[in-house]
Design goal:
about 425 residues, alpha/beta, Rossmann fold, DNA Methylase, Chain A, domain 2, 3 domains, seven-stranded mixed sheet, 13 helices, 14 strands, disordered C terminus
Amino acid sequence: MNEKISKEILADVLGTSKRVVNGWAKSGRIQTSIDGKNGHEYVNKESIQNFKELDFLFDNSWDKFSTITPKKEYKIIELFAGCGGLALGLENAGFKSLLTNEIDNDASKTLKLNRPNWNVVNDDISNVSFKKYLDKVDMISGGFPCQAFSYAGNKFGFDDTRGTLFYEFARAVKEVNPKIFVAENVRGLLTHDNGRTLQTIKSVISELGYDLVSEEVLKAIFYKVPQKRERLILVAVRKDLSPYVRYTKPPKNNKIFTLSDALKSGVLYNQDCPNSDGQVYPNRKKEIMSLIPQGGYWKDLPDELQREYMKGSYHLGGGKTGVARRLSWSQPSLTLTCAPAQKQTERCHPEETRPLSVREYARIQTFPDSWEFAGSKTSQYKQIGNAVPVNFAYSIGLSLIKLLNDIENSDMKTVLPDVQSSSQLSFKL
């Protein structure tokens, strides 16, 4: 486990606030000590061994899990691929890409630049037919944007999703009939349109002939990603296969990685982060941001500068902790957005008074330094900010490899009589 764990990390891991953790320290429930080298306060690991939620910090389940390898070549199609975070992570886990679809020109160029051997289809997914891949693909993956569906007639089925990108994802599943599929999305999908969007998705998954075997929000910090990012992961298995196997999510790694791990030489990277292009602050903003301490935000400014920087927002409620935010070496990065210098979601370098650079962005998303990004600086930030962290995707990929291995190992001579293959189901497209 981490030799040291900060109060902030402990709060993130337990899903509570630093104020609660401070209360535990004050009451003696946990013990802390000050690092003589940097003056930071850390929680003594001996005092958190009784927290059941922290058991993963003291075991090495990850080491055995990371040895999983595919029993055969598992073929995948990826949709809405972006700049390749999910695709690369799945490749690292052992999957072979047959087709990768992305509509954005710059993101497609990024994919082709780094993987010229991939079959990258740069087109609107609605123009792409997948029928030639029927029964030739083990898995479909991708993250579709969540859009509100039509509820005319209250059917809550496949036809209700027409005109949305989930419809295209479902159409690909219907045309290909893979053994499994995985879809990732933002946490907000759970409550999107008062929960009706997810309910329709679940209904369609069943209608397609699949069982949803996992529906869970996972935190990237548990999977060798130095970033406080969360994603909803949906895993579905074809109904003729699901009775014979059980999906298990990846175990948590016993180390929580920080911004220092991302940008400095260490376990994640064997050298300090290379220099690269990045945004710059206007002069006055730079003057003000230079006064923000590491890990601090606008509340750490003198009152007159708070008023100048916040303007009318100064008197509004809420902490607005992302405003004028400087990151900390000793903490995982806040979730990256499509730009590092947006007022509500500032991502300032912990020491230098500047926004994070493109390559720093990529490192926090655990892309290798060899992964190049096409397009303008603005486009590169957007591609990276929208990506699935590579190590996160790799971890999920290993669980999916294990699932497919279990399918291969299962004795499925007898198929349940009331279950049909999704390729036999009929839909009006």
